[in-house]
């Protein structure tokens, strides 16, 4: 049985005081849910976020991590550093990392291998650009992103992977994929994993949808059979909106 997950990616938002305030409000308002709830504050506030949420079921996760164990990588954060503050899940491959920081499939494949070696759960993001969808190339793009970064992994590695399908044209734009478009792609992703591995792995991996999910559209998107939750950007920065999205699952 795969998990339902709602995760908030805070990106480069919220200073220390704001982070603590939002986490405290979220913890107080968290509804009863079967879903795993996760938040990804910025690096500098991860350790304090872990402390603030000590007695909450909300999990603190990282927005990124480096593929090297340690060394001369100024500004970067390693798997061991995350583990040392109690963070054992990392988002890898977010479209903003790909677009603004030059993260290629090859780099992402290395990050995934390092994370899994260190027993860090990977929330792997991928998705097509608007031109890919307009030219009807979106299935090919998604298949190659998965293949390049994940399909060399051993079958056993998949128990530590969560997928987040995030069409780039829907991220932060207010434009959401329709629930049917999300379902169509999620079903395609499961079929692709079945072909590369097997149906058990495909059916056990959680596939989240991300891209302008809001309280008003979350219910319809989460209602689709192959959508196991969401990776939420903007709406995760407002406690009442994030809570409403959690309630929708
Ligand atoms: C994201 O950045 O992962 C995201 C889905 O953002 P938004 O919800 O703001 O579109």
Automatic annotation (TrEMBL):
The active site is at 94 (electrophile), 166 (proton acceptor). It is found in: Cytoplasm. Its EC number is 5.3.1.1. CDD domains: TIM. SUPFAM superfamilies: Triosephosphate isomerase (TIM) (SSF51351). Its main location: cytoplasm. Involved in the gluconeogenesis. Catalyzes stereospecifically the conversion of dihydroxyacetone phosphate (DHAP) to D-glyceraldehyde-3-phosphate (G3P). This is Triosephosphate isomerase. It comes from Zobellia barbeyronii.
